[in-house]
Amino acid sequence: MGRGIYHWWMAAEPAFVQDLVPFVHRWGYLAVFGTVFLEDFGLPLPGETMLITAGVLAGMGQLGIVPLLPVAWTAAVLGDNVGYAIGRIGGRRLVLRWGRYVLVTPERLQAIERFFWRHGGKVVLVARFVEGLRQLNGVVAGISGMPWRRFLVFNAIGAALWACTWGLLGDLAGAHLAAVYAALGRAELILVVALAVALIAALGAHRLRHRRLPPS
Q1: Alpha-carbon distance 36 to 25, whole Å?
Q2: What are the C-alpha distances in Å from 91 to residues 47, 100, 132, 144?
Q3: What is the rounded CA–CA span in Å between residue 79 and residue 170?
Q4: Integer Rg of the chain from CA
Q5: CA-to-CA distance for 182 and 39, rounded, in angstroms?
Q6: What is the pLDDT of residues 86-133, one digit of tens each?
Q7: How many Å apart are CA 85 and CA 147, to the nearest integer?
Q8: What is the pLDDT of residues 152-200, one digit of tens each?
Q9: Residue 15 predicted with pLDDT over 90
Q10: What is the pLDDT of residue 125?
Q11: I need a surface site. Which of 41, 54, 93, 180 has the fewest CB within 10 A?
Q12: Gap between the Cα atoms of 50 and 134, Å rounded
């Protein structure tokens, strides 16, 4: 039944998620770590989608949720700290010079900087849940000169909330796929039986009408 659930889920998922599943099967937790880590200092990779996908696989018993959450948290914290170092050491000029290769445009960076200056540490805390901020909050924190220890505390808490939220939600969804699959199986059986009964009834009615018709 487990293999049937897996194939049903794969058929129902979008193509980009289907591409991630074999990657996770081949590389395991390393796939999650690498994708989240690289996304967190600006590379356009699906770190959040990878975590959710791995969480679903954990719920289906193909990964362990206990090692998955610390792996995702560690990758998130380290990736953001690399971004912080890039912003702090290289500065805005370096980020703008090379950022175009990873879709960091001047307009995008300015918008995030304005938001960061307005809200400070709160941005680092919630940035992981916001597309765009998740990839660049470390870089912008470094450029703005935010003290590293302050950044580290907010970043570690935000990464923990993010990893637990999406990892556990994925795990919960994966664990309930079996129930969904079983329900669909029961519904399919009921539908087949109902169609068979309807067909038999239709054939019986047809034969009954022909018996009652007078011979021509």
Answers
A1: 16
A2: 25, 15, 19, 9
A3: 22
A4: 26
A5: 37
A6: 888 877 777 777 666 555 667 777 777 777 777 767 778 888 888 877
A7: 11
A8: 999 999 999 999 999 998 888 877 765 555 554 454 545 555 555 565 5
A9: no
A10: 82
A11: 93
A12: 14
The full length of the chain comes to 216
Amino acid identity for residue 15 in this structure? A
Unique residue bearing structure tokens 């610390």:
70
Per DSSP, 121 falls in state: H
Query: Which amino acid is residue 130, in one-letter code?
Result: V
DSSP one-letter string for 5-55: HHHHHHHHS-HHHHHHHHHHHHHTHHHHHHHHHHHTTT----HHHHHHHHH
Q: Which residues contact 55 (CB under 8 A, 6 or more apart)?
A: 65, 68, 166, 167, 168, 169, 170, 171, 173, 174
Hey, what are 101's tokens? 């290769």
The 8-class DSSP code of residue 97 comes to H
